[in-house]
């Protein structure tokens, strides 16, 4: 058996004998357990190093004393670069349905204008 998980039959798992699949499953479970243990040990070593230098590990991971990760703090303070466009068209019976005139025509306006009614009938006065 090759290390990349393929054998002479094209690498398809469906055609492998059950005994071989069970052995592969056991090997995969052992590899996963070993990786998780290595990650746990690394995490513990980093926590111990941070504590030995006087840092609180949570403070390091969360980007300060505020309790939020540093990336979340930066994105929360950043303003959107696009301003919302004012409405130019309004549904005659449902004022909550409005459209700025930019982008794809909304379904409600398309339905109201497909019989030949001009869009200007639904335009807000400026």
Characteristics:
single chain, 126 residues, mainly alpha, 2 domains, two-stranded antiparallel sheet, 4 helices, 2 strands, 44% helix, 3% strand, elongated
Poorly predicted parts: none
Tally of individual helices:
4
Record field, number of beta strands: 2
Overall number of structural domains:
2
The radius of gyration is 31 Å
What portion of residues belong to β-strands?
Answer: under 5%
Structural class: mainly alpha
Strand order of the largest sheet: 1-2
What integer is the average pLDDT?
Answer: 80
Give the N-to-C terminal Cα separation: 76 Å
Largest sheet: 2 strands, antiparallel
Outline = elongated
Percentage of residues assigned to helices: 40-55%
Order of helices and strands: HHHEEH
